[in-house]
Amino acid sequence: MIGREFQERWSRMLQDPVPETQLRALTEIGQAYLNPAATLEEVTFVGALKTKEIERPKLSTLLRDAVLGKLKAEDPNMRAEAALALVHWRDEKTIDSLRESLSDSDSTVRLAVVQAFAVMGEANYLPDLLEVAQNDPEELVRAHALLAIGRISKEAICDWEKESPSGAIRTRGGITMLKPVLVLEQIIKLDNSSYVAFLAQKARKRFGD
Amino acid sequence: MRTSLQGEMCELRHHLEAADCASAVCATVNWFTRAGEQALHSAKSIWKANMAGRLPDDLVDLLARWCFPEEFDPLETKRTSLRNNDITAMIAEWHRKLFNVLDSFCRAGIPRKVLCGFNMVDDLIFYVTSAKDFESLWKELGNVSPGTRQRKPQNVNDALACLIDIINDPTKQGKVYPDPATLSQINNAAVQAGLHSERFLGGAAGNMAYVLSQMGVEVHIHCPYRSDRLRWDELGPTAKYLQFDNAQYRLISAYPGALNSPHKITVGFQTIPGWSFPPLNVSASQPGRSLFIGEHPVLNPQYRSWTNVQVLWQGQSYRWNGPWDNDRMVWPYPAVLVYYEVGGQQLNIVPADALAQQLATREKYDVALLKDVGHRLGQAQMEQAIKKQLDELRRARIPIHVEISPSHNLAFLRYLMSSSPYGNATYWSAGLNPDELLDITDGDTKVWDYNGQIKLNPYLFPKSGTSEGLLQRFVRALYLLGQLELDWIYVHGNELDMAIWRKKPCELIDQLGSNAGEKLRDAMLLAKAAVVVAMIVRNPAPQLRQLINQRLAEGAALAVKGFWALLSFARELSKWAADRYGQNEQVIYYDLLYKGFYEMGTKFGVAVAPVFWPDEAQYLHSTGAGDYSSAVVAAYVWG
Q1: Measured by CB atoms within 10 angstroms of the end CB, which terminus of chain A is less buried, N or C?
Q2: Residue B99, burial from CB neighbour count under 10 angstroms (0-12, 13-18, 19+)
């Protein structure tokens, strides 16, 4: 459990009437996932890239609910920052809320959600990322979704592919998608951004035939 | 067909990992703030604990305020916030920019034509991989005892001292300039010791010609002697040698070169770490590189039939005195477009001014890369000749780009740039590295004078006791830009590249116009990619190649320092510009972070590019990293 002092401080900040203070809290919560320390005295630089080796802090559901509330804020910066703060939680309520935010009208928010999924790096989000990679109107968001797929380990992808032997997957909209490989091949062929097409080719290599 | 350098540059697209990089930078920002606050808090506590009881409390507090800042200074400020989503978006945007630059290069290349002169050198690199290698070398040097480290060693004892010093501390990046006899002894000793060696086409012009021709740029090279000892075969297929005689200029194949022709030599020692040699207190714990640079071209005296040198210019002849008067090995090195005649006892050097005019009109180069023009030639008529030739190029709207070094005579450079036919636009640009910029503009520098016609004092403010920040680097570069009246200046760093352009002059120049910021930014992104690839391709030592490939495999981690530098500079510059020029701090900040450039009203603009790649100059054969950067940026921007 991350220090109580931090969590209580963040909870207070999230209730502060000044939006800057709320944003600061969300930023700190998000960064605490990448650079965990139980107390100020334990601050060390562990290197964000070795995410699998670090014991992640466990934050309270009370704090989670406060952050989830910010996912509906009027300010897109607040919504985006909240998305990046939610990386601490993996429960259904959090993931469903993040998935819903993939349809946010603001591309900054959608990019932040994709980055949150990238940080989490789990194969369960593959259908969501593929859908964004194929359909988001913003080139940068589509590209980032493909980079996020690159953060899912090959083993996790293999396990995930075994669990869906038919190859078809259901997305959050209830629509059945093609096999990931076919989705990526469509992106390679049809996306008018050379950056997205390149990243799709790179992502394609992570899957079996 | 692609060259290997082109292929490797296209491969770099695979190393872009925006998602990982964003996480790493967010973590770094967080760590910096928290560790910094904690370190300051701890330091103050230790200070007070040690002082308590020895000094009165109010005095302890006063001394603490003198030693430590009130609060830790984090990267973000009230006006320039730094949220995780800002960092994510910014990094995603820069990765896209870099991809587009590399992808465009891979699809279309950079179709340019450049003139490149004059310094071409036979770089001989010997690899010292073990104590046994070092001992063999020492034995062939006569087991001499090390003398004193000098910039210009005149004997093998002092040369050995230089080598040992640099092996023990590779951060010294040693370049030394021995006399020809000492250089020859070192070379012979390395050969007799049987050290593994490789030869490369070096010198500023050699390095520039290498990287550009390998990138597919058409390069016309002129150097005083097209010696067969130079590695012309390293050049790409688009390189040609520019030869002059009294009637015409010709473009010929650079390779194979003329037999028995003088050439400059550099003897380098590349250290592979992991050994020590106690008898001389040598310990190679890191890769390193020391260079023994021959300042003059040399040739076996049996091939020299002349005794003195004259310059034939505008119908008159003028004696040119130099070290060749006393040393028969040494030849003159005229950094001018020239041809030669040997008449009896005279070597006649003839500046090809009329041909330079034809060249300028017919070839329509995008840029002329002429690093050496900043050196005084020590012969007045040749200095006049180079001025005339450069003015011909400029009249044809061919810009000149020079890589500045502290050994340049800046007043002479300023003289060469003077009298532009295009008003404020000088059609000159320059590149240099931060250390050189510091040397030129700090308190130890001299006032430069060219024949009493031009005086130039580049001093701005003394160097700081701690390492200089990026804002200071920018201020120095801006100052030098103004002093020399360049159109733009480029400072190539290890973490952040920056370029500053003078707005009004650049708007008069077709190639730049209103696009200067974007062009400079993209050029810098391309240049740094070319540098790391050139270092890989030109380095045959398997251990060193493995080291650099391991670093590249780290992917995202490499770019953290570059983005940190960008964030830091954006914050400092936006505050400085807001205070000084009354500009909007937030607009400057976000423009630098997302667009990579900002235009300061009608005065100047600044462009930046974070460095995505490892900086392993100290252990790869990269005598020309600065030359590569400058060449690529100049060719890209001026095209």
Answers
A1: C
A2: buried
